[in-house]
Specification:
- The protein is an alpha/beta fold.
- About 35% of the residues lie in helices and about 20% in strands.
- The protein has three domains: about 120 residues, Rossmann fold, CATH 3.40.50.12160; about 230 residues, tm_1862 like domain (pyruvate-formate lyase- activating enzyme, Alpha-Beta Horseshoe), CATH 3.80.30.20; about 60 residues, OB fold (Dihydrolipoamide Acetyltransferase, E2P).
- The protein contains twelve helices and 18 strands.
Length: about 450
């Protein structure tokens, strides 16, 4: 039995692609291993979104080719977004790689992994294929790499937004939704496998169903997923600020299984910067949006991300962003420094911001957010919350860990659990009551109380 080792980089959307490729290989008789050094074939599923991600991907590819050169591996396959952006360059620079497959060629992994196939001689999809149609469905084999109690469901692929800094449309093609029935069937299958939390992902989740003629498709989807008995939580990631409908907010508010959480990358708050980014809006309109969200769904946790150091960003633009964050007090926040990506409209903009200035702004904004998060966490001390239990803590085997509804896996904080009733059964995915006893900048500490 041939062993295939996977190195999956980038976002959860890319992880689902890796899971689909692993599932196809396993069904075909391959053995999947997490240790690339034990593999006959190494697959590197790359990210090509920003410079740091590209550097990480290149490093992983080079490590895989070194395994081949040393005789530990016989074949190297490179997949994903980096291939979609730079396939011709990669083919020229890395002749030791046996096959390159882009984001629209996930279903060709069996050909790519087959040692008897000269994959380079086969016809390839166009780079940056805007006419890509590939979507996995409920019948596609999939080998999940997440914890047993949680799973991602990709509800759409591609993006049509004009954001000036973003290369995703060139890598993922035009926006296309999966069939409603396909998503529901996959969710039921996952629930039957023991999954308690499904996380809906796409490049632009809030547009789900729009291309299929559905009105408020995401709201309907959330409503129906919450009816699946064995599921405990339904979470939505990657929504867009102009498509936060009243129907979607109502679905979150009215369904106990819909976690009170909104992931909505806003990118900036200055009118000048939002216009330059081709996103629209201003600080006042975004503050009204956040107020509408919180009025519709009391106690909702709002997560967002921002870009600092965008071309032309002045200190005044940045101060507006700081004021916006100070006013809105986001529950979770990430800050990226601008990455100058060739092929995007922003690449040709003048007035580039020096890297040290961008990094200083990133640090200042995160210091502000740390203070906001710390104050928010301290307000939770003494209160009891529903927490999804996840098992032994990654920080210490003397602690357990779990997550509040407002904490998405791996990107937000955790609840560290240091005590429980003697008869407590530590089952991953179980919803438990936790009384918060301590608060840190991003994490909480608590004890399980009688259910």
């Amino acid at each position: 039995m041939k062993k295939v080792g996977f190195v999956s980089l980038g976002c959860p959307k890319n992880l689902v692609d890796s899971e689909v490729m692993m599932g196809q290989l396993k069904d075909a008789g391959y053995e999947i291993t997490a240790n690339a050094e034990d593999a006959d074939t190494v697959v590197v599923n790359t990210c090509g979104f920003i410079e740091t991600a590209k550097e990480e991907s290149i490093e992983a590819i080079l490590e895989a080719t070194q395994l081949k050169e040393s005789g530990k591996a016989k074949r190297v396959v490179v997949a994903g977004c980096l291939v979609e952006r730079y396939r011709d360059d990669l083919i020229g620079e890395l002749p030791e790689v046996d096959a390159f497959i882009g984001t629209s060629e996930v279903d060709r992994i069996l050909e790519a992994a087959d040692e008897t196939t000269d994959f380079k001689a086969l016809p390839l999809a166009p780079i940056g294929n805007k006419t890509a149609t590939y979507l996995y469905d409920e019948y596609t084999p999939r080998l999940r790499a997440t914890e047993s109690h949680t799973a991602f469901i990709k509800i759409a692929e591609g993006c049509d937004r004009p954001c000036a800094f973003c290369s995703i449309p060139a890598m993922r093609g035009s926006f296309r939704s999966r069939r409603f029935g396909s998503i529901m069937q996959e969710a039921k299958q996952l629930a039957d496998q023991g999954v308690k939390e499904v996380v809906l992902i796409a490049q632009d989740s809030s547009r789900y169903g729009e291309d299929l003629g559905d009105i408020d498709g995401l709201a309907i989807l959330v409503d129906e997923l919450c009816k699946i008995d064995k599921l405990e939580w339904v979470r939505v990631m990657y929504t867009y600020p102009t498509h936060i409908s009243d129907g979607f907010l109502k679905a979150i508010a009215n369904n106990p299984k819909a976690v009170k959480y909104l992931d909505m990358p806003l990118q900036h708050a200055s009118r000048r910067m939002l216009k330059a980014m081709k996103r629209g809006g201003n600080r006042e309109s975004l503050e009204r949006l956040i107020a509408r969200v919180r009025e519709a769904v009391p106690d909702i946790a709002v997560r967002t991300t921002f870009i600092v150091g965008y071309p032309g960003e002045t200190e005044e633009d940045f101060k507006q962003l700081m004021t916006f964050v100070r006013n809105c007090k986001f529950d979770n926040l990430g800050v990226f420094t601008y990455s100058d990506e060739e092929g995007t409209p922003a690449y040709d903009l003048p007035d580039k911001v020096p890297a040290d200035v961008a990094e200083d702004r990133q640090k200042r904004l995160m210091e502000l957010q740390k203070e906001i998060s710390k104050n928010s966490n301290h307000a939770k001390v003494g209160k009891t919350y529903s927490v999804m239990f996840e098992g032994v803590s990654e920080e210490s085997d003397l602690l357990w860990q779990g997550r509040l509804e407002g904490q998405a896996q791996e990107i937000d904080g955790l609840v560290l659990i240091n005590d429980a009733p003697e008869d407590f059964l530590p089952i991953s995915g179980k919803i438990v009551n936790v009384r918060i006893t301590e608060a840190h900048d991003y994490d909480l500490v608590g004890e399980i109380v009688q259910q």
